[in-house]
Amino acid sequence: MDIFSSVTLGRLQLANRVVMAPMTRSRADIDAVPTDMMVDYYAQRAGAGLIVSEGIAPSAAGLGYCRTPGLFNDAQVAAWSRVTKAVHAAGGKIVAQLMHVGRVSSHLNKPEGAETVAPSAIAARGEIYSDQSGMVPFDTPRALRTGEIAWVISDYRRATANAYAAGFDGVELHCTSGYLPAQFLSTGTNQRDDDYGGSVQNRCRFALETLAAMASVDGAARVGMRICPDNPFNDLKDDKPQETFEYLLQQASQLDLAYLHVIRMPNRKVDNIALGKRFFGDRLVVNDSYDLDEANAVISGGEAAAVSFGRPFIANPDLVARFRQKAALADFDPGTLYAGGAQGYSDYPALDEVSRGL
Ligand SMILES: Cc1cc2nc3c(=O)[nH]c(=O)nc-3n(C[C@H](O)[C@H](O)[C@H](O)COP(=O)(O)O)c2cc1C
């Protein structure tokens, strides 16, 4: 068995085990609506067994970076429908990654009136880019009142329904990298004294209720979750990540989700892959700095069901075809990652275009 074999994860049938990892590319318009170039970009990458979209905000408050997309209004649903249709026409599958950034935000990157909220009113150290003012400090968030949390969770439920209305094959909860669910999980960002803070059970409540809300729309078999225990990104700190994630995964494994997407992080306190495997056995998608040989090794060794690739997909839209041919991979231009415009985004050629001199 190798990376080119098919696999079924919940209700998602993948033609191969190469997953495109979620990547924010800041190509939506200023109203968080996907643009035409995003239709091209995703269709070009439909050779992946599954595409996980860039992080998509479930609400206006969930936006934080400039020109990132949402799934909370009709215009966004209509635009995403064009993306999913193009991916399906090219033979691919695509799930929507729901990403609420919580405190990792600037109001400059949100529509007027959308607040920056988090479990506690603790600002992340650091800065975030805005088109208007360049680098600015992160907002100091307003702590969510207990009664508001159910509304935030219902935003994820509505965004899941919107994702299905837009033709996505599934949804993935972004539960790492210092964004809202991770802010609830971690002791450094969650200092609440209600049912959503304090004990490990309470800190995991938000993520688990959100997953249940997403699963309530059309079953858990279309829902995945992405984690990276002990990830310090965006000023995140948890005193006991092993304990936190053991409880989270033990509870989440009872929901019968389609898959668990795990970013490995060597040299930290937790062996992320081993932990994921303990609770999600044959439904594991693994990520971070894999190459073809290592990916084939973990698939044939039964360590993972699929491997996701992020950066290799940026300049190699036909990554799976290149893997099949053992072709050299192209390097991407870091300068255009978030630049806006088709350059360095949807203009990387496929191999056959290169050989035809296009
Ligand atoms: C430009 C860029 C944007 C990213 N945006 C997201 C994102 O929106 N959501 C997410 O979960 N991970 C995001 N990531 C992390 C990737 O999904 C992936 O975990 C990382 O690139 C490591 O995998 P790789 O070695 O195959 O690139 C991003 C990475 C890059 C390079």
What layout of secondary structure does this protein have?
Layout: E1 7-9, E2 12-14, E3 18-20, H1 36-44, E4 50-56, H2 74-89, E5 94-98, E6 117-118, E7 127-130, E8 134-137, E9 142-143, H3 146-165, E10 170-174, H4 180-185, H5 200-218, E11 223-227, H6 241-252, E12 259-263, H7 272-280, E13 284-287, H8 292-300, E14 306-309, H9 311-315, H10 319-324, H11 351-355
Parallel strand pairs: 3-4, 3-14, 4-5, 5-10, 6-9, 10-11, 11-12, 12-13, 13-14
Antiparallel strand pairs: 1-2, 7-8
This protein binds flavin mononucleotide.
Query: How many structurally independent domains?
Result: 1
> How is the CATH topology named?
TIM Barrel
Element order, helices and strands? Answer: EEEHEHEEEEEHEHHEHEHEHEHHH
Q: Quick one: CATH superfamily?
A: Aldolase class I
Bound molecules: flavin mononucleotide
Q: What's the level 1 CATH class?
A: Alpha Beta
Low-confidence stretches: none
Strand order of the largest sheet: 3-4-5-10-11-12-13-14
Q: Sum up the overall morphology in one term.
A: globular
CATH architecture: Alpha-Beta Barrel
- Main β-sheet, in a few words? 8 strands, parallel, barrel
Q: From the alpha carbons, calculate the radius of gyration and give it in angstroms.
A: 19 Å
Question: What structural category arises from helix and sheet content?
Answer: alpha/beta
pLDDT averaged residue by residue: 97
Query: How far is it from the N-terminal to the C-terminal residue, by CA?
Result: 35 Å
